[in-house]
Specification:
single chain; about 300 residues; alpha/beta; TIM Barrel; six-stranded parallel beta sheet; binds zinc ion; Glyco_hydro/deAcase_b/a-brl; Polysaccharide deacetylase family protein; signal
């Protein structure tokens, strides 16, 4: 599939189907083998809890953390990982959706039940800047932290997921693929105003490349097209610095962590069980895809088992 060539033509952009983009997310690096009968949903995660809780909005700006007080890679890798969930589309399944596509489409009622489980279990949703402060300086996190993230920028994230999150006072991170901003059709995407609105409401906007090409294949100008230009575009839309990135397909390599760091990125998010980068663990933070097939209990088991 060559999105790059075709997407340069405006006509071709409208022909890019949702199926194409859904398939972009379908690397099987997810942790979906959790036995939903083996654990209790009431098991608490053993994340270190400080008596001082940090509410969203009170985290120091990472830019104010002096370079000298940032822990080394080994220390960062030794800290307990925070469970991080990755969602794509939040909508009912349609007849056309393939079985594998459904892994990336969480039906609204399932999403609602998963988020309710987090709230009922006492989880606090944290944002990328809070995770950065925790990993780099050991700054305290609220009890039972979790991070909720969304990739690609689908409109249903804004229209369906955000009201459910905000009902529980949860904020989330949204990683936007800029080629699709404002696209309408079978699978619509958020427009600029909606992205800005999320940023204004305290959610984090991050970058997810221009058109979802695999970062492992970038050469020369690709870093400008896929990273630098989309970053500037998102900064112009939100009026805020864009400091966090999610790898398309969850795929990455050491070179990509170096290139992102060089361009000022503080955090980059992959998927699943892959080991983090020894030198740049902050640029290879792990997430799991929260499947639409998962009950709240299965999701909880995966969170506990995948982030130790
Ligand atoms: Zn994606």
């Amino acid at each position: 599939m060559s999105i790059t060539k075709s997407a340069r033509l405006p006509l071709a952009i409208s022909l890019l189907t949702a199926a194409t983009l859904v398939s972009c997310s379908q690397t099987k690096e997810t942790s979906q083998t959790t036995d939903n009968k083996s654990d209790s949903a009431t098991v608490a995660t053993a994340i270190p809890v400080s008596s001082t809780t940090t509410e969203p909005g009170t985290t120091p700006d990472p830019a104010t953390i002096p370079a000298g007080s940032i822990a080394d890679a080994a220390t960062i890798l030794s800290r307990k990982q925070v469970p991080i969930l990755c969602y794509h589309q939040i909508r009912e399944w349609r007849a056309k959706d393939s079985k594998s596509a459904k892994d990336y489409i969480c039906p609204t009622s399932v999403f609602e039940a998963q988020i309710k489980m987090l709230a009922d279990s006492g989880y606090h949703a944290i944002l990328p800047d809070q995770l950065y402060a925790y990993l780099t300086t050991g700054a305290p996190l609220p009890p039972k932290p979790v991070m909720i993230t969304f990739d690609d920028g689908d409109l249903d994230q804004y229209e369906t997921a955000v009201p459910i999150l905000e009902k529980h006072n949860y904020k989330a991170a949204f990683f936007i693929m800029t080629v699709a901003i404002g696209r309408r059709g079978y699978q619509p995407y958020m427009d600029k105003q909606q992205i800005k609105d999320l940023a204004d409401r305290g959610h984090t906007i991050g970058c997810h490349t221009w058109d979802h090409h695999n970062v492992k294949k970038y050469q020369g100008q690709d870093w400008v097209t896929q990273i630098e230009e989309p970053t500037k575009k998102l900064e112009a839309i939100t009026g805020k610095p864009i400091k966090h990135f999610a790898y398309p397909f969850g795929l990455w390599n050491h070179e990509a962590t170096v290139e992102l760091k060089k361009r000022g990125y503080l955090g980059a998010y992959q998927l699943a069980e892959k080991k983090r980068d020894d030198e740049n663990p902050l640029l290879s933070v792990r997430r799991i895809i929260a499947s639409g097939y998962w009950s709240p209990r299965t999701l909880h088991n995966s969170m506990v088992n995948s982030f130790k």
